[in-house]
């Protein structure tokens, strides 16, 4: 029996996929999610709901939007109507407004609903659908207020055309087509779950660029960098450039919070994959969210910009026992780890290695008698990798027993790794959040071993391990 993750969000019971309706309001981080309230398989799609005051501890609330006789409630987003543009409220408290896809066998259309009680109860707008174009592949509205043009913008996908379609509205009820983006980048799988937001460029005060994220079914999330002028998105790259968000298998349908405080841009994603999501060996819940991550853009020496993701600092609150090792050869550091008794099934690891030759090195987590998950680095290939081929139960899908790699350069001959480990996941971050690999694993609960490895001359500059509550 696979225990429930300790610090990753799961539904109390039943199926979960995409995060939906992420919005911060009145001190609460709202997390809605694609949910089957009636079982552990995809179906009866509705919006589950949870809130948090710190992004760490979640309180489960009743289902917010329940499947209807004529349609299921597919993915979408939520925003605060601060300007009372919709007229849904009483003019005093700003309404929360959700946009979602009503999915029927005939058509996918965009609907809205509103809440006047901090997201606890929702009423559908009587004029739904707000957008219908007679398509079966038209979904996943991401809503946001575009201040420069003083209007609402909604990004949806025309999934099988590999297009993101933008709509504008003064009042959240009446929408007009603004423009389309795509096909571009990776187009082997249908496009889903767009998100669009501005991000600051690290170290360049007052500089920002827009990021358009869109998922490619069966292949994962990709992103484009460019400008959005309230009307259209213009990408900086030529149309054939593909930028991956995450090089693991299990980071899909990421969505960022609207109205996060202090101008932060934080997202999380569904940690699973459509190839095997229906078969992952957990019950009475199935599906989990990634850890929340803070986003930024970083410019490299060649002038190019890249998305970076780092675990949200709120996760520091989970830190309990702490073990630290400084400046040591790998073998001695490993002996020291063992002597300290550093182990656990929920861990945060921060490690800086000084790389002195071409030999592979890294960290093994969730190690037991016959299993381990390896997060390693190959200097010869310039790649970060996660090997989950011996991570535990890999039998439920032929697509699970694999390893995944991300291009990753050393910085001044060193590699800094940041790893989050939980009951059934690893998330590895390197190169300051530019190379990220997120993977599910299903080890035995007693496999709590931790080791570092490396055959060559690599040294551990520093290693911090925290047991997480
Ligand atoms: C993405 C997705 C969305 C859709 C939802 C249905 O994982 O396929 O496109 O709205 O899941 O649950």
TrEMBL record:
It comes from the Bacteria. Residues 336-466 form the Glycosyl hydrolase family 32 C-terminal domain. Keywords: Glycosidase, Hydrolase. GO terms for molecular function: sucrose alpha-glucosidase activity. GO terms for cellular component: cytoplasm. One of its GO terms (biological process) is sucrose catabolic process. Pfam families: Glyco_hydro_32C, Glyco_hydro_32N. Residues 8-304 form the Glycosyl hydrolase family 32 N-terminal domain. Belongs to the glycosyl hydrolase 32 family. This is Glycoside hydrolase. It comes from Candidatus Thermofonsia Clade 3 bacterium.
